[in-house]
Amino acid sequence: MIKKVGVVGAGTMGGGIAALVVSAGIPVVLLDIPGKEDRNELAKRGLERALKAKPAAFMDPDLARYVEIGNTEDHLEKLADCDWVVEAIIEKPEPKRALYERLEAILKPTAIISSNTSGIPMRVLLEGRSEAFRRRFLGTHFFNPPRYLHLLELIPTPETDPEVLREIRRFGERILGKGTVLAKDSPGFIANRLGVYGMVQAVRLMEKHGLSIDEVDALTGPLLGRPNSATFRTADLTGLDVLKLVTEELAQATGEDFALPDWVLRLVEEGRLGEKTGAGFYKRVNGEIYTLDYRTLDYAPRTTLDLPELKTLRDLPLAERLPKVVELPGKYGAFLRELFARTAHYALEKVSEIAYDLVSVDQALEWGFGWEEGPFKNMDALGHGRLEALFAEYGLPKPELLGKAQGAFYRNGTYLGFDGAYHPLPKREGVISLKALKSEGKTLLEGKEAALLDLGDGVALLEFRTKMNAIGEGVIRMLQKSLEYVEEKGYVGLVIGNEDPRAFSAGANLALILSLAQEGDWDELSLAVRQFQKASMSLRYSPFPVVVAPFGLTLGGGAEFTLHADAVQAHAELYMGLVEAGVGLLPAGGGTKEMLLRFTQELEPYEEADPFEAVKRAFNLIAMAKTSTSALEARKMGFLRDRDRISMNRDFLIADAKRRVLELAPDYRPPLPPRIRVLGSEALGNLRYAVWAFREAGEITDHDMRIGLEIAQVLTGGEGPAREVSEWDLLDLEREAFLKLLGTRKTQERIAYTLKTGKPLRN
């Protein structure tokens, strides 16, 4: 079992790996070569870089205290009690081999050693090492930034002990949250070999077909099911110097043509390396994005690709979109057809050299480069007949593997093996796929906006299906039906979760709320808010356990549902917040009440504690619309409790939530309704003064002040003496304040602006 990890090399990758490991609760030793004045200077600088990184490398910056720094000359013995040591030093074989020789002398016999090299073959690195060292060694290639990119390529050698591989795979998946893929010991492994090839082809074909950088990025991003950063923005983020180094190494190792055009090499010579130097393929000028003209190497304002066909295609599912994309007219279609043909052909030719199966290739590109679907799934979507026609059009011979395929690489839960036979798709232990459950007929109830699925073992799951999983009338109606169904049919409990890539729930349906307000339908709005409150409360008081599995964006109403669950099984990447103040409202689905209740209960064991501290804490959280940047931070902020759990790997989230239901189910009893002490007029006066002071200092607008005063009214119970109230007393105050604010012109302007732009308005 891995209880302590060493990282040698405190550069961008080493520091990022250390931050990820310690975020998972594992102490780390981080070493680098000695500095001149301060011997630990380079390791210290690497840790500081990780702390300042954007996006954040640490899930909780306070955990940096568990990273012990040192240098490789004075402190190598600090690695002696580490269970796993990751080498992430300069990308040259000689220094790596010299380090391994020193490590072999001090590490304990059971320690695992790995290299984070992005492409140097393991057999080269192992020259001169003993048999015992070789058994404990493998490649572990993280992708940058390690916290956010899901892929971890594992490169075992023929001598790697299978138990070592199993342990690293388990640790990588369950503890670090990675999607692990086994790669063969070939140059560039899987993702970089194919991804960099595709990037080089895009650059060359841009010139051939007379496109601009803006046009290529518009065509090679979400249109192809790839990230917004597309081709050139991705290169800027990675660094043009890194791109140059990787292409040169691949060319040398493979003998293939990975050469970049001269104008790209000139950018590197001039120090225009991308994001880290402020200019590369793109440059920010006075807050605007300018794009490089590769013919002149000057920058001009960014242009938008205006092609009517693209607007229609973007809303289609990827499988329907791709066949239409390659048929686009003119130079755009010509570029995309040739790019698809050449990259698909390369993947087919190299797959058996770089991977053990084509499933690994698809996973590597999906997890490492952010593709919606991997290359073989894309080829199936295009159709093998069209694929063969493309190859013929560009004079590319038909690959052997395509000849073995019977019209598809994937069919009926199987995939094509290199032997020409179809094999069952590998099942990952501990992973529940909702997509698979639906295909197996496990849907119990279904509506347009939500559905109830059978997870097995007496556990059901409620899945939202609206855009960004916004909560509206249809979701609330299905929630009530689901709760009734679970009770009537004798299910032991309910999970609320989904497989959306971005959002558990972005909150209530603001468009509907604004529409009703503008129509003046206040009775309908009051009823809708009360129904939302009843839905939240029903999660708390159902006669069986309800576990919510939030991840990604969990905002507003999505956060309120989460707060009212018996237990939460959160993904580590949780961006949770009660953000209603940003659109001129306050949480009225029980969120305001719940934060006051939680913070008040936390203080109850301490007789000397000032109860106003709970009110202040809730007020600051809600009025400032604070959002967590991780599940660890959500716990510190009070959105998660100590008993709530965190899954590092999103793939296991649903299964972990189901397991939590099964733990809670035996002899489950819903909680008794609490009485909540509110502080009344005195506390309300204090908050009013604080809000007024902020307005006088010019830190908030008049409307911000009004929102703050309504929040204060709810959190203190309004005018009157300190007293005990019920949850519904506070929910009534929430609803009243919500409707008051919604009736104002400025709040309606804020909502309309946010719906149009996705950004908050300060009016």
From TrEMBL:
Top-level division of the source organism's lineage: Bacteria
Reaction(s) catalysed by this chain's protein: a (3S)-3-hydroxyacyl-CoA + NAD(+) = a 3-oxoacyl-CoA + NADH + H(+)
SUPFAM superfamilies the record matches: 6-phosphogluconate dehydrogenase C-terminal domain-like, ClpP/crotonase, NAD(P)-binding Rossmann-fold domains
TM annotation in the entry: 7-30
Keywords: Fatty acid metabolism, Lipid degradation, Lipid metabolism, Membrane, NAD, Oxidoreductase, Transmembrane, Transmembrane helix
Keyword Membrane: yes
Coiled-coil regions listed: none
Occurrences of domain 3-hydroxyacyl-CoA dehydrogenase NAD binding (ranges): 4-185
InterPro entries linked: 3-OHacyl-CoA_DH_NAD-bd (IPR006176), 3HC_DH_C (IPR006108), 6-PGluconate_DH-like_C_sf (IPR008927), ClpP/crotonase-like_dom_sf (IPR029045), Enoyl-CoA_hydra/iso (IPR001753), NAD(P)-bd_dom_sf (IPR036291)
Domain 3-hydroxyacyl-CoA dehydrogenase C-terminal residues, every copy: 188-283
UniProt pathway: Lipid metabolism; fatty acid beta-oxidation
Protein name: 3-hydroxyacyl-CoA dehydrogenase
Organism field: Thermus antranikianii
